[in-house]
Every structure is written in C-alpha cells, then in structure tokens.
Amino acid sequence: MKKLLYILSAALFVGCGSAPVEQSAEIQVIGHRGGRYEVDENTLSAFVESYNNGVNSYETDVRLTADNELVISHDASLKRIFGVDVDVEKSTRAELTQHKSLKGNPVLFVDELAAFYGSKDVRYVEWEMKSNNYTPEQLKIYCDKLYNTVMPLKPENTLYIFSSFDERAILTMKELHPDIEGMYITAQPVCDEVIEKVLSLGIHRVGATIHATSRDAMKKAHEAGIVVNLWPGKCVEDFQLAYALGADIACSDVPVAVLNFIKDNMKWINPNKDLK
Description:
The two termini are 35 Å apart. Helix 1 (2-15) packs parallel to helix 10 and helix 6 (136-150) packs across helix 7 (167-176). The protein has a single domain (2-270), classed as Phosphatidylinositol (PI) phosphodiesterase (TIM Barrel, Alpha-Beta Barrel). By secondary structure, the chain is of the alpha/beta class. The chain has helices at residues 2-15, 44-52, 79-82, 93-96, 110-118, 136-150, 167-176, 192-200, 215-223, 236-245, 255-265; strands at 25-26, 28-32, 57-64, 70-72, 108-109, 124-129, 159-164, 181-189, 205-209, 227-231, 249-252, 269-270.
C-alpha cells in the first residue's frame, strides 16, 4: 500500500504539470501534539523526544486554568492521558502539577514549552487556542497572556501561529496584537465556504481536513493567497496524500516516521518549507 501511494503521489505531481520527481519540492511537516502516535502527547518529553529525532515544527494545544495559568492540553479532562478525570480548566496550576501521565510525565505549561522552543532550532509552532467555552472577558485574558508568554521567548527565525476552531479567539488575538499570524481550523475540507471564511477573518492560513479536499479546491485556496495545512495525518500514507494534493503543511501524528520515509523514499522533498 505504501509503495502504491508513493507512486500515486509522484504520478499526480508529474501528470499535473508540477515539478518532476528529480527536481525539488517543499512541504512543512509538523508534529501534531509533538507527534501523538509516537510520543506521550503534549508533554515536555514528547517535544524533547521528537526534536531529538529530527522534528523541528509543531502543533500544540493551550487551555486556561482556574487561576489564569496557561496549560498544554488537548482534552478538557486529564483522563485519557493522565488516567484521572480532572477538569483542566477548573483546576489550578498547583493542583495540576500533582498529576503524572500514564507514562510518568508531568503536566506541561505554556511557559515551560515556550522556554524549550526558545532554546532550540525550531522553525514553526502552532499554538492552538482551545477557547470555545470562554466568555469574552476570559478570552481577552487568555489571548493577552498567551501572546505575552510565548512571543518574548520566540527564536528570531521561528514562525509562531495562533490557531483555533474558535473564530472569536483569532479576532480577539488580532485585536489585541495585530502583528500575530492567525490560522483558522475547520473540520471541513478546503472548499469555497472555507476560503471565504478565512478571508473574512483577515488572515491567510487554514487548517482543513485532508479527506474530501480536492486539487481544484487547493488551487483556489492558493490563488487566494491562503497557506493550507491539511490534517489529520495518522500515517505516512496521509502525508503522501497531503503532498499529492499540494498542501503547504502536513500535520502528522507520526512526524518521525514521515521524515524517515522522505529521507529514504522521496529525497526530492524538502520537509521544511519556508512559510513566512
């Protein structure tokens, strides 16, 4: 199956007038939650391990605790990763630090992850704002604190993106800090409706689902000046599909496996596309 999809992706690019395989091509490979199928997702151990294995671009998730601290957590509860049904947003930082993941890692906070990124050669980070249930007042506190926590520690040549399914978060962040790069995330494929939504938010980046996205829709998005991140990337084959569709970014749960596959089988690809 891998060989078949590899041949298919190469054929799509050659057959559609894109660069032949002996020439170079670019796409940015990022580790979703650090690479959640390969590591203990969204823990410091996850980012250290994936970085040591060649990953230099990431997506992660940010929530606000009861005492207005910023914690790295995709889920509203610690149950899936930590084995305890604790509501992240109703807990304080001190309370959350008492827990260890099922693999023995502590809860990670944004200031800790920002410090890690600041000391490494990291190219690209998506800070996903998990803010759908926040009041406008909470949203302002959240956005302002997130910006002021991560931006002072951002390496000079690293691109930081503030992304969300919650368009309020993007608009609030842009209002408070007009210099930010925002990205709208959607469970839809790239389509006319999604393109219009992105442009209406005054941004030029989208994270859309890989399944049902077409090359024609990708062409429209690119013609509109939109940088496209396709997800989910559960396996190497999903990366190949994202590449074949012309994605700028492939968000992967197995980034180390993808980078190794590129090195061994798709040497013409540069997995560190310049997205600035």
